[in-house]
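Re: How this chain folds, sequence and tokenised backbone to follow
Notation: Tokens come from a learned vocabulary of local backbone shapes, not from coordinates.
Start of record: The labelled sequence and token lines come straight after this line.
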Amino acid sequence: MHRPGKIGLGTAYVAGFKWALERGYDYILQMDCDFSHHPQYLPIFLRKIQQADLVIGSRYVPGGGIINWGVLRKLLSGGGNVFARMMLGLRVRDCTGGFRCYRRHVIEDIPWGEVDLEGYGFLIGLAYQVQRLGNVIVESPIVFEDRRVGQSKMSFRIAVEAFVYVARTALTQRWPIRWPKPELHRFLP
């Protein structure tokens, strides 16, 4: 699917989700196509989604990591994840990671009007809504290698959008959250 111009990361994900739903797929995988998200993890994701509603490829769990990022970018990403986790009560360590596999029902159940974001805040919003709806989220370690060609979509405006979303949501919607069973949430073999 090719879209004219850059009209936002969030709208690109939504277009892809709609495309997959219209074709009847049971699992919907999202990943960067610049090999920052290595295809070697796909069989692991497909195995883990059998016992979860969402699998997130995580840079911030044991075995995960990042290659070729500068200190500032690591601080921004790590700090943003800690902020979102603390403010929203998220159990996910990598709520801005874009390497994910969803069960179909998860995408169908999301209250899309509450995740109307263009940048990386969209990923935080999805993680929050998936957890809030009581779904089981599993993180699987990945090593993220920064792209060799092109540039990051991160900008000051996108960072502010994510910050405002997290703060506003924490103040207005955080409770009640239907927590998943803790023994299923963390790291499945």
User: Anything to note?
Assistant: The radius of gyration is 16 Å.
